[in-house]
Amino acid sequence: MLRANVMNGHCRGTLEVYTRMRRLGVLADEFSFPLAVRACAKMGHRYSCALVHSHALRTGYQDNLHVANELLAAYGRLGQMALAHQLFDKMLVRNHISWNTMVSGFAFNNNSSGALKIFKRMELDGWEPDLVTWTSLLSSHSRCGHHQETLRLYNVMRSKGIKATAESLAVVVSVCNDSNKGSELHGYVIRAGLENYSFAKNSLLCMYGRHGFLQAAECLFSEIKTKSLESWNGLISSYTQVGLCDEAFSTFLHLKKIRRKYHT
Q1: How far from chain centre, in Å, is Cα 216?
Q2: In which domain of life is the source organism classified (predicted)?
Q3: Is the dihedral of CA 218, 185, 101, 33 positive or negative?
Q4: Which pLDDT score, from 0 to 100, does residue 261 have?
Q5: Which terminus of the chain faces fewer neighbouring Cβ atoms within 10 Å, N or C?
Q6: Cβ within 8 Å of residue 13, ≥6 positions away
Q7: Cα angle at 142 between 138 and 148, to 5 degrees?
């Protein structure tokens, strides 16, 4: 019941089932606690999350790896990284998910220094950062506007023989202020077979638009099979970047027409 509600986005229903379960004297376990915690986080309920955490603490399930990892993710989503850090330090057992959740939590909360500290601590403790770790680290620096540092970290990642993913490339392309570097990244996207990932193409589209390469931006836009709002915004921004206001407005009107047709 808990899982069915969470999977279908019925977070309030999840908590209602959890509350009813407790009233009936059925205690949660390593399977039900993470579901209740996830529902709290998705709803943005700090108090409810703290309450479920206290239940896990009293029943001894806070030390369960799956429960602890879900709590780390919840506190990150709720903007309570200090609590996440306290819990992380107390964990008896950690896995890659634990470390990655902390790095991504700092990234989500625009704290690049916190993400980097956990990243370095991970390496010192003998753990090997994986693609998820690197992507979260890149994202944290990108979110904070540290463009040069994002590019430097990307180069370090590649020097270690780690292949970039569509997600990490999208992050790096978004901060690229050098058209030559942007073209180099575009080439990597093609060689790595990542062209079908829309978010990678959207980032490239916006990058070309920023540098005034309108033809390249239009070409990428036409190649995107399922165009998201970001795709349309990227094309409109590309037109305005080179002063083609009529084309930008015409594209905007076309977008409105398509969305109106879709919603009717």
Answers
A1: 27
A2: Eukaryota
A3: positive
A4: 65
A5: C
A6: 5
A7: 90
Closest CA to 244 of 214, 211, 223, 203: 214
- Do the beta carbons of residue 73 and residue 41 sit within 8 Å? yes
**CA–CA distance, 204 with 216 (Å, rounded to integer):** 9
Q: Report d(CA 102, CA 91) in Å as an integer.
A: 12
Question: Taking a C-beta distance cutoff of 8 angstroms, is the pair 99, 118 a contact?
Answer: yes
Look over the chain and give the mean of its residue pLDDT values, rounded to a whole number.
92
Q: Strand, helix or coil at 242?
A: coil
Q: Are 224 and 202 in contact (CB under 8 A)?
A: yes
Q: Which of 69, 12, 70 is nearest to 45 (CA)?
A: 12
C-alpha distances in angstroms, 60 versus 15, 51, 137?
20, 14, 32
SS3 164: coil
**Cβ 65 vs Cβ 36: under 8 Å:** no
| Torsion angle of C-alpha atoms 225, 189, 186, 243, degrees rounded to 10 | 30
| Burial class of residue 157, CB neighbours in 10 A (0-12, 13-18, 19+) | buried
**260: pLDDT strictly greater than 80:** no
Q: What would the pLDDT profile of 166-185 be if each residue is shown by its tens digit? A: 899 999 998 988 778 888 88
pLDDT value of residue 263: 57
Amino acid at site 232: W
